[in-house]
Amino acid sequence: MATRALPPHGSYARANGSPGYRPPCKCEPCLIGRRAAKKRERVNRQLGRTNHCDATQARTRLNQLNQVMGWEDIAKAAATSAAHLREIASGRLPRIKKTTHSKIMGIQPTPTGGQYIDATRSIRQVRALQTAGHSAEAIAAAASTNRSRILPLLNGYPRLRRSLATRIDTAYEALATRKGDSTRSRNRAHREGWAPPGAWDDDTIGNPAAHPEWTGACGTDRGYWMHALQKLPMCDRCEQAHQDWLTEREHLTPAERNRARFRARVGASQREADLAHDARELIRVSGLTTEQAAERLAVTRQHLQQAMLRHPEEAAA
Prior knowledge:
Elements: H1 12-16, H2 28-46, E1 52-54, H3 56-65, H4 71-78, H5 82-90, E2 95-97, H6 98-105, E3 116-118, H7 120-131, H8 136-142, H9 147-154, E4 159-161, H10 162-175, H11 183-192, H12 221-229, H13 236-248, H14 254-285, H15 290-296, H16 301-310
Antiparallel strand pairs: 1-2, 3-4
Helix pairs in contact: 3-5, 4-5, 7-10, 7-11, 8-9, 8-10, 12-13, 12-14, 14-16, 15-16
């Protein structure tokens, strides 16, 4: 642990000492500095002046700074302790010294990796990698971290440092298109109903309100049948959509309802095969990339790739 530098001779902090940490300094500059500080304090008290001010403005500023900076980084810039700043930011210190106020207000936001951020994106990334068979150890190695930092995210821990989130982004980019060899990870992911990389894109994976797009039709009855046909974990939206579909057809006879179910099942099976076929034609004839073909077909790139994997091109006879 690094030793804290001593305040300079002549300062009140050096002259007054710190109980349990360092004794008061008795040198001449320190004695003069201590007498001058005491005199200022006495004069200000007699004139009704105060060395303290309301902490509301500083509290607001600290919470703004903490959006892009960690507490240790802010404390270093303010020449104080992180614990003291957290006391101010939480509102437990309603008044603070004017010097502390000035230091806090003078800090310029400087993005660092030390602050804690919402973990939604990272949680979904590590869980998606597990569906591909990547173990916590493999994910940790790709993220240049250790397994103990990956496990809490798999279990849904809501916050993490920005620097770790950046490293997990790197691991996800490296592993998302590769298959791992951990059967245990795949089994857990299937048991928990975690969505694979193909169900997410960069615009939605970090949005807490977004849902995974397992089938390209999630939230509809067609999505329900695509889940069932491809033996994918059933998502809540498709389950609800199928229940709504059944409710709308309660007036039908059992035979009519079964025929309708059969038609819906066949339609869902054919749609993804047609999607894969159309994409290959666009890529082959028009020279489009997979991403451009997905945009033309109004589906996500990940969903199109999954459709093409599930419906490989038949070899010519």
